[in-house]
Amino acid sequence: MIVTSTAAAFGAQVPILNGLRTLGNNTPMLNSWAGDGNYWYTPNPMVTNYYYVTFASAFGDDPVAAVNALAKRNKAAIAKGGSTGGFITGPAAIDGLVTALKRTGGSTNGARLAAEMEKFKNVTTLSGKVSFSKSLHTVFGRQYRVIRVQNNVPKVVGTIKAKVVPKI
After folding, report:
1. Residue 120, Cβ neighbours under 10 Å: how many?
2. pLDDT at position 81, please?
3. How far apart are CA 52 and CA 109, in angstroms?
4. Residue 152: what are its φ and ψ, rounded to 5°?
């Protein structure tokens, strides 16, 4: 199988995909979260055989019912933002903050909260279980949704989680 992989977003994405498709190249294209959302889809050629990973599905087919409920409640705002899975990161961050507050006995001291968050291992959030560490000041361990787009219709086709965090 031949696969085209890109991390293009915004202005670069359309010419890459449309160029390949108008030449008759229909190999699957893989993208990162940079290709999330439907804001860039074109009517001709339609986006097809295109895959990306994201934090959550904005299209009502997320494997987590609570995510779908949130997406439904905020459908207009999510659509205005490009229908990306990024809508889940704010609520997930609040879940993390609530966990840190509980673990510190309600302390609002920033240093104490940060120290507690640096100990996070598989903390439950709306976006799934996440970890955080002193050396990696970003969330890791999250289960991402794999979205496949066929004829401009995005659909969750599975989930994936990084098995190893490389030493950098």
Report:
1. 20
2. 87
3. 38
4. 65, 15
DSSP states of 46-83: PP-SEEEEESS-SSS--SSHHHHHHHHHTHHHHHHTTS
Contacts of 105 (CB under 8 A, 6+ apart): none
The residues with which 29 forms a beta bridge, in sequence order, are 4, 50
- Say how far apart CA 126 and CA 109 lie, in whole Å: 24
Residue with tokens 């229908």: 83
Q: What region does 59 belong to: left with phi over 0, alpha with psi -120 to 50, or beta?
A: alpha
pLDDT in tens, 32-74: 888 899 998 999 899 999 999 999 999 999 999 999 999 999 9
Distance in angstroms (rounded) separating the CA atoms of residues 103 and 110: 13
d(Cα 168, Cα 122) in Å, to the nearest integer? 21
CA distance 58 to 44: 23
